[in-house]
Specification:
5 strands; two-stranded antiparallel sheet; 85 residues; alpha+beta; elongated
Length: 85
């Protein structure tokens, strides 16, 4: 991925430890349903690297929210930035 100053990079990584799952006689690659969400540093935007652990797959969204909130990043909907009240 090309890094630029107009984007924030968030990465989701899942834990693995050579898990092998066999189903219907076929061997599958696999991972745990837990891991980390990280935000990339962006000096121009004042963003530092941050990591948040999630324990279940359905916690990924909350982990993303946490790293953004800790970096004081507000989500703007429909391209309409407004004042914080």
């Amino acid at each position: 991925m090309t890094k630029d100053n107009k984007t924030l990079g968030v990465r989701v990584r899942f834990w693995t430890n050579k898990l092998e799952v066999s189903r219907d006689g076929e061997l599958y690659k696999s991972c745990w349903d837990s891991g980390v969400v990280s935000i990339e540093a962006n000096k121009e935007k004042g963003i530092t690297s941050q990591v948040e652990v999630f324990q279940k797959f359905d916690e990924i969204g909350k982990a993303i929210e946490k790293v953004l909130k800790k970096q004081k990043v507000l989500m703007v909907k429909e391209g309409k930035p407004g004042r914080i009240k």
